[in-house]
Fold this sequence. Notes:
heterodimer; A: mainly beta; 7-stranded mixed beta sheet; 4-stranded antiparallel beta sheet; 48% strand; B: mainly beta; 6-stranded mixed beta sheet; 5-stranded antiparallel beta sheet; 11 strands; 0% helix
Amino acid sequence: EAExxxxxRYKITEKSQAVAFWCDPISGHATLYWYRQILxxxxxxxxxxxxxxxxxxxxxxxDRFSAERLKGVDSTLKIQPAELxxxxxxxxxxxxxxxKETQYFGPGTRLLVL
Amino acid sequence: GQQxxxxxxxxxxxxxxxxxxxxxxxxxxxxxxxxKQEPGEGPVLLIALYKAGELTSNGRLTAQFGITRKxxxxxxxxxxxxxxxxxxxxxxxxxxxxxxxxxxxxxIIP
Lengths: 114, 110
């Protein structure tokens, strides 16, 4: 069964350091999403890609967060510099297309900033 | 923005009991999704609903898309230990972003 892959699964870093997360969506899925999930809450969208283009990054803190999907397949989310408040689960999801298509989630990367 | 109220926030039930949870939205949706999340893992899709009034089952799980398009319900019959986790509803309208509820934490008492 096709799955969304994410790495690393866990990351511990010190504040002010740079971190990067990788996501490989389900093959053929044109839309890719990055979410942040704080403990005890539901996921919140950070950025949405349609192929290689960003279609929604309104909730992405652009002073420290960046995301790219250069070839329209896998994607990287970067935080530089990391802050204590960035500790959370970072989830990647993909869907065939935006709108009605159901989103499938990867296992997530749990980030702890010390 | 859109808000999803999910209730109850947590449930403590005995194995074999039925479970009911619901979500209400401040605006209409045309898609409702129910996910289950276990500790340290990503949400796993349980049921997707695309039409008002739709009733869909997945094994012991049944979900309904409310007629008003502002609510959805998830029922689990004859709960078993592996049902433990956090259940999230999520919905969206058109191409708007998916909005998640705050989750219902299900605990099964032995």
